[in-house]
Specification:
mainly alpha; single chain
Length: about 120
């Protein structure tokens, strides 16, 4: 019988990573994630950007919100969505544990550069 290699992360971290990437495994949710990487966006603008109906976009945003990938904040009559930076930091830290020099590049830093904040 072959010996199993030890994972650099624990079972709870592995489940969290599977959930995170499972959510982003859908084209619509991945597109939402990528649009939110640049800036906070309200639902109406996301509908226009994706060419989808509001109920469809809201459904996918709800899944991302329950998965702690995005935050929702009410601003007047609009709901504005942003990426959950804490979750992104946790995901990047878990991923980088197994790489040499783990932690040299963080997902949050990449998103800051993309958004012109770094």
């Amino acid at each position: 019988m072959a010996k199993q290699a030890k994972l650099a992360i624990g079972p709870a971290e592995a489940r969290d990573l599977c959930q995170f990437f499972g959510l982003l495994g859908d084209e619509t949710r991945l597109a939402l994630f990528l649009h939110l990487a640049g800036d906070d966006v309200h639902v109406g603008a996301l509908c226009e950007l994706l060419g989808l109906a509001q109920p469809t976009v809201s459904h996918h945003l709800g899944l991302l919100r329950r998965g702690r990938v995005v935050h929702a904040q009410r601003r007047g009559k609009q709901v504005v969505y942003s990426l959950n930076r804490k979750t992104l930091e946790e995901v990047s830290a878990s991923l980088l544990k197994g790489f040499p020099g783990g932690g040299a590049i963080r997902l949050g830093d990449v998103l800051d550069v993309k958004a012109g904040r770094g």
